[in-house]
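Good morning C.,

I know you're traveling, so I'll keep this short. The sequence:
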Amino acid sequence: MNRILPAILALLLAAPTTALAAGNAHEPESHNWSWDGIFGTYDREQLQGGLEIFLGQCINCHSLKYVHFRDLMQLGLTEEEAKALAEGYEVAGEPDEWGDPTTRPAKLFDPIPSPYRNDTEARALNNGALPPDLSLMAKARKDGSNYLASLLEDEEYNTGETSDGGLYHNQYFSGGLIAMAPPLYPGLLIDDEGNDVPVAEMAEDIAAFLTWAAEPRMEDRKAMGLKVLLFLLVLTGLFYVCKRKIWANVEH
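The tokens, ready to paste straight into the viewer:
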């Protein structure tokens, strides 16, 4: 009995330490974002670059269920461009006369579709792992924009080397190992001058796009906040003038 109690105490003390070590991850690197500060706004060119990467790479595994094709016009796409983009995807349609499921080209009011029919298919095609929806990922993670950019920029991760369990090393992911293969690599995108777009730039573009996906009304919120501050400033001035007017002839 005297030996059992110390052993139990040792296990209880070691368990939190082990769990903490397993969850350790480096703090994300800080980036300069165009929307930082009260006057900051999204860079439309950067958002369009992130959209291109998402549709070319991320959509093969991840969904974006809270973003509709019509929302992409906020990025600078015309209505015709958004419609043409939507029509390139098939979504579930109304059942036919026999009750069998049908598909139809997506329309502006449709959300960007998942690459899988259901979660079971998603797990079956990803070794049991369920790729998360990325609509709110930038809000779901602490310091989300910097986290996403740092995760995708990690040099060791982008070498493609795996652990014995087939997972990829990434110092910014909890536990240091991630199932997702590196989606970005030199040569994935070519700029107007024919040069490879750097991985770091692509990582920032997709992080910016996912930040917009999570906060599409951020610019409106900032504009409203500035209007409220201006209103309160004017109101304070009026109150001060009224106070001076009312109490001007009163002895103190």
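Safe travels,
E.
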